[in-house]
Amino acid sequence: MSAVLSCSGLVSGYLNRPVLHGVSLDIPQQGVMALIGPNGHGKTTLLRTLSGFLTLRAGHISLNGTDINRASVHARVESGLIHVPQGDQLFTEMTVEENLLMGAYLCVDGAEVSNRLNEVFALFPKLKDRRNQMASGLSGGERRMVGIGRGLMADAKLLMLDEPSLGLAPLVIEQIYEALGHLRQSGMAFLVVEENPSRLLSFADSLCLMDAGHIVWRGTAEEAKSSGDILKTYLGGQ
User: Fold this and answer.
1) What is the dihedral of CA 212, 203, 146, 123, to 10 degrees?
2) What is the pLDDT of residue 5?
């Protein structure tokens, strides 16, 4: 299967401190690739580099075969590369529906925007019930649903999710991953970052392990399960 996004030799970081050291990935057109590894070893930096928030110091990125090395964040979003960052980052003085509509700001077809909104409400029924509620009054799980829903409103070709389960109760995490499972079945491509990736072993098609800014292992979930060293060192012995 051809890649929706390919990157090779990525070097990136903050100020004079490089964090990524020659990272290369090919993300398939469909399915879930999980990016796992210890906290502070480059997972979020990779997503921020792919989405254009961090300057690429070396390497190459292409989206559906088109070079996006110099593309702006706006241009990458327009091309379907959508990054749902760690944490909520909502417009707290806007309603749930207004936050969701911000994700579709590039779409000028009102009927299409309405269709996308209905699809998000079908995926997260709680948001439909709270569509007129201010985002500041939502629970942590509801805020996460709005963040993911806003990303979906942008008509993603690749949806990059940074720690979608961070800080949430187990029942809410179950609801989030149930919704993501429905999206997976629709054929969407995902790159999902999790520090505690136990759920990804049954959700992801492939996993890449980051350590100290390098991809040090890649394989299927079944291969991860059969690797005692991987499970013990990075997955908590699950």
Assistant:
1) 170
2) 96
In order, the DSSP letters of 143-183 are HHHHHHHHHHTT--SEEEEE-TTTT--HHHHHHHHHHHHHH
Q: Which residue is it, tokens 């999790």?
A: 194
pLDDT per position as a tens digit, 92-144: 999 999 999 999 999 999 999 999 999 999 999 999 999 999 999 999 999 99
Domains, the chain, ranges and CATH?
Answer: 1-78+159-164+191-238 (3.40.50.300), 81-155 (no CATH)
- Inter-residue contact 134 to 128 (CB < 8 Å): no
Q: What is the pTM of this model?
A: 0.91
Closest-CA residue to 151 (of 142, 160, 143, 163): 160
Alpha carbons 103 and 72: distance in angstroms, whole number: 17
- Taking CA atoms, 156 is separated from 52, 103, 104, 148, 170, in Å, by 16, 10, 10, 11, 27
Provide mean pLDDT across the span 201-222. 88
Q: Which residue has the tokens 């990016």?
A: 35
